Amino acid sequence: MKTSALLLALAAVPLLGFGSCEPAASASPAGDEPDFEPPAAGPADTFDCLPVQPLVCGATVDGDTSDPNHGTTQAVDFYAGAVGSYAGPELSYRVDATASGSVEVAFVDPEPTLLNHDLFVLDATLGCTGEAALARGFNSLSFPVEAGHRYYVVVDGPDEAGGAFAASTECEDGAVLSDGVDEADPGVGRPDPFAAQPDTGEGLVNISADLQELLEFGEIFDGCDRWAEHPEDRHAKLLCGKYRFFYEPMGTDGIPQPLLDWMGGNFPDWAGDSFAGFGLVPDPYADEPRALGFGRAGSFGFADTQGMTCASCHFGELPDGRYAIGYPNHDYDYGTHMLSLMVGVQAGIPGFDASAQHPDAIAALQPMIDAFGADPWLTASLMWNLTSLLTEVGNIPEVPYEVQGQYASWRTGTMDFLIAPLSADDGVHTVSRISPLWGIADEPDFAAYGTDHAQLGWTGGTRSIADFARGFVHVGGGDLNDWPDEQLEPLAEFILSLRAPAPAVPPHPSDVAAGRAVFETSGCIDCHGGPRGGGLEIYSWEEIGTDDTLRTWGAPDADGELCCGLSDYDNSYDTGGVKAPRLVGAGTFGRFLHNGALDSLEQLFCLKARPAAEVPPFAARGHEFGCDSLSVQQREQLAAFLRAQ
User: Fold this and answer.
1) Do both 249 and 352 map to the same domain?
2) Average pLDDT for residues 274-283, to the nearest whole number?
3) How far apart are CA 52 and CA 641, in angstroms?
4) Which residue blocks in 132-215 are alpha helix, DSSP H?
5) I need a surface site. Which of 114, 478, 569, 584 has the fewest CB within 10 A?
6) What is the pLDDT of residue 394?
């Protein structure tokens, strides 16, 4: 069974940029958006307000002055024009007026006998001080705003006051409030990383709950023939690229088809139909129990082989039930899948010695081993299906004992793609999580951001999809003479047309607006200010603090040179660092950090406990930006913002 190139087909996955929420810079002071002048110096006893978010017309905010995680301060005890002490903790909000008028901020369903909160508006040009108070309200507060000016709205109370509240903002008489982001020029004169990309998909359906619709109701099967007949037809070209995404291993070696199909139909309670139990998606057009992501590769003995394609890892079912092309399939149990084909099948052959295999691999394969033991006809069926492979028995590669354990150790959605029995083995056990393929930087992005580098791969050393595709063919055992650049173009162009799915149930607009402000002002944009929230430079592992085993990926000698033929046919290189990946679609992911050690945005932002994983390459440490510097509410809003992208 020549599995080496089969596994190399999966090497395509990480080279295209496994994503996680990458470095955010240290927090910077809020209130420095370019549309508004910073507050002028006020009296000697003034200090910076720490507004937790901007107030937006028609939106409601939730706060809790009894919880420091909501961003409370204890800075103002007295206000001009108000009697009494306000020594309790306060929460402040920013109001940026882009058009003059009046604004009303009101508590939602207030209960003043239970919670004694008042509302104050401060003139930001006088600083954050009680002397800057312009007006006070009890359950509500109305005040005029002038275009281009900043104000602070503060919720405060006496010592004993503290608790949760909700407050709504309404704009009247023409007032317009900014959410803190200039869509045309967010941050400091840079493009909006999350600006909508134009639709370049030529009407192809890439997100749907209907698999047949995703496969264009079978039209993709003659897409490349149509493109060959009409090379000027871009729709036909993308249709060809879509076919190749699902069904074209581009000359790389693969799995013997009799074995693949037999395995896909004989372990329904474990591997599932067509390996659905391992997270793959059954092909609605296949005559055999076969998953999407396989295509005719070559021959092995007297049998055809099926090679893995882009869709093996970059296609799957979204949490909301839709299927999406380019989606990182974090349900895919690649390690167990490969073990079942390379080791598990041996359990059905007389003479199999489980004690000679790694115990972790045996544990992962136990349901398969038990099935062989319980059903002798299963063994007979296997042997019959392997008869066409008998002439090639001597060419079946062995999986070393230690490597078996490594395959068994990988979480779903993760893998090491330079490992035995691959011919391209860098000799280092690293783990990368599957990344999305949507939103990759294209020519318009290069012009807007002044770069020519798409930063593909976790180390960011592959410049373009074309570079990657050449490397994929070469490392996978294909012949580049059969796949010149012009034949790779349809796939590359199709991938560049992929867009992240809009959330089926978007977060509340006020949370999204507030989260965008947090993203802009807390430093996230400093590292994630590139196309679709990706980065524009490579960061050192020390800066990020995550498990740094990947620093030796493809370069075990740490000499700056890639091994294993990885740079022979493209412009890839060893960066020694880690990129800040694209963030669009992050709300659909089930794995975070480059090694997939975390399960959610909540774990990433320390809203939930992280796993106690400390052993490389699985360590769950690092990238704790915002965990200490942002309140719970701000981190929740940041998560909401990312889920909306």
Assistant:
1) yes
2) 97
3) 15
4) 186-189, 211-214
5) 114
6) 63
Strands 118-123 and 150-156: antiparallel
In this prediction, residue 340 has a pLDDT band, given cuts at 50, 70 and 90, of very high
Convert the pLDDT of each residue in 373-385 to its tens digit: 999 999 999 999 8
The verdict on 11 and 126 lying in the same domain is no
Domain shared by 12 and 79, yes or no: no
Place of tokens 């871009």: 234
Pair 298, 332 in one domain: yes
* Per-residue buried b or exposed e for 448-471, using 16+ beta carbons within 10 Å of the residue's own CB: ebebebbbbbbbbbbbbbbbbbbb
The SS3 call for residue 390 is helix
In terms of Cβ atoms closer than 10 Å to its own Cβ (0-12, 13-18, 19+), residue 482 is exposed
Interhelix angle for 485-496 vs 465-475, to 10°? Answer: 120
Pair 539, 23: CB distance under 8 Å: yes
Yes or no: say if 641 and 515 are a contact pair by the CB < 8 Å rule: yes
First to last CA, the chain: 43
| Separation of alpha carbons 145 and 177, rounded Å | 9
Structure tokens at 617: 């390459």
Residue 76: inside a domain: yes
pLDDT at residue 20 above 50? no
Residue 307 and residue 219 share a domain: yes
Q: If we measure between CA atoms, which residue out of 462, 402, 323, 417 comes closest to residue 7?
A: 417
Task: Give the residue-averaged pLDDT of 618-625.
Answer: 96
Rounded-to-integer distance, Cα 582 and Cα 528, Å: 8
What pLDDT, on the 0 to 100 scale, is given for residue 82?
86
pLDDT tens digit sequence for 466-476: 888 887 777 77
Q: Give the residue, 174 or 48, on which the prediction is more confident.
A: 174
Q: Is 217 helix (H, G, I), strand (E, B) or coil?
A: helix
Angstrom distance (rounded) from CA 448 to CA 186:
14
Is the same domain home to 14 and 91?
no
Tokens for 621?
């440490």
Q: State pLDDT tens for residues 587-599.
A: 999 999 999 999 9
Residue the block writes with tokens 């295209």: 16
Environment class of 333 (CB within 10 Å of its CB; exposed 0-12, middle 13-18, buried 19+):
buried
Helices 359-374/334-342 angle, 10° precision:
60
Q: How confident is the model at residue 29 (pLDDT cuts 50, 70, 90)?
A: very low
Q: What is the pLDDT of residues 191-214, one digit of tens each?
A: 889 998 999 999 999 999 999 999
- In what helix (H) or strand (E) does residue 403 lie, and over which residues does it extend? helix 401-409
Residues in the chain: 645
Residue of 121, 112, 250, 257 whose CA lies nearest to 177: 121
Whole-prediction pTM: 0.76
**Residue range 36-58: average pLDDT?**
55
Tokens of 56: 């937006």
Residue 218 and residue 335 in contact, taking contact as beta carbons nearer than 8 Å: no
Is residue 228 predicted with pLDDT exceeding 90? yes
Which pLDDT belongs to residue 69? 62
- Three-state secondary structure call for residue 621: coil
Q: Does 256 lie in the same domain as 386? A: yes
d(C-alpha 418, C-alpha 579), whole Å: 19
Question: Per the structure, how many domains does the chain have?
Answer: 2
Domain that holds residue 303: 4-19+201-409
Please, which residues have CB within 8 angstroms of residue 374's CB and are 6 or more apart in sequence? none
Residue whose token pair is 């798409």: 454
Residue 171 lies in a domain: yes
> Which of residues 373, 390, 409 is at a domain's end?
409
DSSP string, 227-246: HHH-TT-HHHHHHHHHHHHH
